[in-house]
What we know:
By secondary structure, the chain is α+β, with helices and mostly antiparallel strands. The chain is about 25% helix and about 20% strand. The protein is built from eight helices and ten strands. The protein is globular.
Amino acid sequence: xxxxxxxxxxxxxxxxxxxxxxxxxxxxxxxxxxxxxxxxxxxxxxxxxxxxxxxxxxxxxxxxxxxxxxxxxxxxxxxxxxxxxxxxxxxxxxxxxxxxxxxxxxxxxxxxxxxxxxxxxxxxxxxxxxxxxxxxxxxxxxxxxxxxxxxxxxxxxxxxxxxxxxxxxxxxxxxxxxxxxxxxxxxxxxxxxxxxxxxxxxxxxxxxxxxxxxxxxxxxxxxxxxxxxxxxxxxxxxxxxxxxxxxxxxxxxxxxxxxxxxxxxxxxxxxxxxxxxxxxxxxxxxx
DNA sequence: AGCTACTCCTGGTAGC
DNA sequence: TGCTACCAGGAGTAGC
Length: 287
């Protein structure tokens, strides 16, 4: 499922083919993929616009359209569970799961495909209305141990659902949250404000390292859903320590990885490397 | 504030 | 072989 590394990989691989292109037309094959407006309205809004910039914010991809002087418009999208983007030659038979096709110059088109139909495209003048609530980018300079320690200290919440909360940090999903917590040797049920300075420091480093390594390996592909725009599977799934490895031996200590459910999400932990938080330890110390 | 349940949706698979 | 039932899961929302 596309998280930050998969969206980053996608954006990097479509950027050079898109920037400078003018949109020649739009075909919506599944109206539900377009948020907030009709297929016709999206076509009228996009047709004729020039793509100036392609970027990412959290798990959203962003196409900046038109000239800043005349007020930028933006095509923002979220791939959710099974969305994909790629560029192909105009005239090919369309993909079975193609939901929106955007005509470009040079007889090419940008395809937004999505098996499970959870993904969405938004056309907007005000992208902050769509992703303004997002927390900091974990690979930016704003994401520091100091910031994280302060932010965690204010939350009485289990660390895993907090890391999955896009308003807290942008871009982490189920896979990279489990991997980051394992790398930091933190149990997913630990209360955020009980983490010590050393643990917060490890967590900061782990999140950055896990995401960077996943980007270097073009993300993770488990099922047939995620492929890069160039058609390759990701390679990071072969390097995972816990996600999807329930019952298999921990790569660090050999203890079988356990799958539990936290906040309705499958969650993978090494019971030895990530000891269960003992909420009574304060009371015990007092005795 | 933070938890759970529910919704959207399909392909894959377990069970019969 | 072919059927049904169930599950995964990002994020928004409702209700407690």
